[in-house]
Amino acid sequence: MNAHVIVLGNEKGGSGKSTTAFHLAIHLLYEGYKVASVDVDSRQQTYTQYVVNRRNWAQARGLRIPHTTHYHLPLSRGDSQRENQKLEFDLFRQAIMDVESHADYIIVDTPGYDTNLTRLAHSLADTLVTPLNDSLIDVDVLAHIDPVSGEPRELSHYARLVQRARKERLAIDGRTIDWVLVRNRISMLSSRNMRLVQSGLDQIATRLGCRVADGIAERVIFRSLFPLGLTVFDELDEELLGGTPTTSHEGAQQEYRQLVHALNLPISDRARARREWLVASATPQPSSLFEHVTA
Ligand SMILES: Nc1ncnc2c1ncn2[C@@H]1O[C@H](COP(=O)(O)OP(=O)(O)O)[C@@H](O)[C@H]1O
Ligand SMILES: [Mg+2]
């Protein structure tokens, strides 16, 4: 497989998987890489809605902004669960096979619940990003923290799911999954809770063999970006945004850049050469290279 697969996972809704997945994808596009995205959440499809919002907004405003090649599953229906699962498996495999040889990165957004497909997606990850809201309730998705000592005790269901995925991956092609925990929606005010979360995560990371990256603060800007399908990496001027950009935009952009840096993503020689050419060329217009958009 040529493409580097980045999976967003956390068995908890509302932790910021879809928002982070979308931001990573658009950032990598602006950096000149070929990016495909796959939405494995067949119930909520937040990522897909983000994609649709972006396309609609771009069309309505005549904007030339980059888009990923996007795949999503059909909305899950109530009839035969087994048939649905098989269909989803087949569609997912097909999507990955379609793009693996020509995308630099494939971003996979997973749901906040455990399905066979969620497990398969985790096993395929080269980089697994787990956003966690800044509270001990969210840390509990990885391991139960002793309320007295603050030390992690028993591993939670999701942590075990990732451990199994890692084993499976090792058996398949001898590769390891780089697992990165990211605190999200961090409060601007420091508190005892925050310190507990930080130290709990550090200890969990040591125990699970994963890393903790600097996080993303709680910012209202994310609420206004979703309906327009925009990210903090788009040039949020009045024309693009249809209103005045807020000051939190630059701060959020900076944090996401730091996150990408911390992910330490490998860059293939091919992707590096293309990017250098793009940067050196007189008209570096990523948008003109990414017209192929499928839903
Ligand atoms: N850093 C942030 N600051 C403020 N709101 C955020 C932030 N990250 C995500 N959100 C909001 O949290 C909600 C859940 O995010 P989402 O990405 O859909 O989570 P998940 O995919 O894990 O369910 C959304 O309303 C989103 O706009
Ligand atoms: Mg989601």
Brief rundown of the structure:
The protein contains twelve helices and nine strands. With 295 residues, the chain is of the alpha/beta class. Mean pLDDT is 87; it is low at 284-295.
CATH classification, class level of the domain at 4-132 and 215-289? Alpha Beta
Q: What is the terminal-to-terminal distance?
A: 23 Å
Mean pLDDT across all amino acids: 87
Lateral strand order in the biggest sheet: 3-2-4-1-5-8-9
What sequence of helices (H) and strands (E) makes up the elements?
EHEHEHEHEHEEHEHEHHHHH
Total strands: the figure is: 9
- How many DSSP H or I helices? 12
Apparent shape: globular
Category from helices, strands and their pairing: alpha/beta
- Enumerate the distinct ligands: adenosine-5'-diphosphate, magnesium ion
> Can you tell me the CATH architecture of the domain at 4-132 and 215-289?
3-Layer(aba) Sandwich
Supply Rg.
19 Å
Q: Can you offer a commentary on this structure?
A:
This protein has 295 residues and is of the alpha/beta class. The protein contains twelve helices and nine strands. A seven-stranded parallel sheet has the order 3-2-4-1-5-8-9, sandwiched between helices. The protein has a two-stranded antiparallel sheet with strand order 6-7. The site of adenosine-5'-diphosphate has 17 residues, from helix 1, strand 8 and helix 8.
